[in-house]
Amino acid sequence: MAKELKITWTRSYIGCPETQRATIKSLGFRKLYQTLVKEDCPQIRGQVNKVSHLLSVEEID
Q1: Distance CA 54, CA 1 (A)
Q2: How far is CA 43 from CA 12, 14, 15, 35, 49, in A?
Q3: β-sheet bridge partners, residue 37
Q4: Residue 16, by phi and psi: left (phi above 0), alpha (psi -120 to 50) or beta?
Q5: N or C terminus: which one in the chain shows less Cβ crowding within 10 Å?
Q6: Is the pLDDT of residue 1 over 80?
Q7: How far apart are the first and last CA of the chain?
């Protein structure tokens, strides 16, 4: 069974560089405190690591 990540956008990106804003948008977030479930893959992990200070992440099965 593939693992999934439960990702919640918890902090605003006001004051962050444009690349981090684009990363939040490319993950699919539209609103603050929105939660998404994504498949665990290296591409998603890399995006999450780039903006980890703005997100909270949980692994789910």
Answers
A1: 28
A2: 22, 24, 25, 18, 10
A3: 6
A4: beta
A5: N
A6: no
A7: 7
Structure tokens at 53: 């200070």
CATH number reported for the structural domain that contains residue 10 in this entry: 3.30.1390.20
Q: Please tell me the predicted confidence (pLDDT) of residue 9.
A: 98
pLDDT at residue number 61: 84
Where in the sequence is the domain holding 20, given as residue range(s)?
A: 4-60
Number of domains in the chain: 1
DSSP state of 52: G
H or E, element range at 9: strand 4-9
Q: What is the CA radius of gyration of the chain?
A: 11
Residue-wise pLDDT for 2-47, tens only, equals 799 999 999 999 999 999 999 999 999 999 999 999 999 999 999 9
